[in-house]
Amino acid sequence: xxxxxxxxxxxxxxxxxxxxxxxxxxxxxxxxxxxxxxxxxxxxxxxxxxxxxxxxxxxxxxxxxxxxxxxxxxxxxxxxxxxxxxxxxxxxxxxxx
Length: 97
Prior knowledge:
The chain has helices at about 1-20, 55, 80-90, and strands at about 30, 35-40, 45-50, 70-80, 95. It is of the alpha+beta class and about 100 residues long. It has one domain. This is Spore germination protein N-terminal domain-containing protein.
């Protein structure tokens, strides 16, 4: 009976250590893509990603932003789609989602 008790205590304590948000990013630290385009030219793939600054959209409830939010366009190119996507991710200054 005591062996079963120790196994139950061990298993329940493991669930405490396994739960959590270790790799959780803050909203302002992640770029959210709003548009995505793929071109093929001269034997290479070009990937374009448009990102909005959602932080500039936030404000008091009911307020209307006075100007258009800034828009950024990222570009990656490569012989394959994977290479182009990797270049887009590596040249980005923040995480992409």
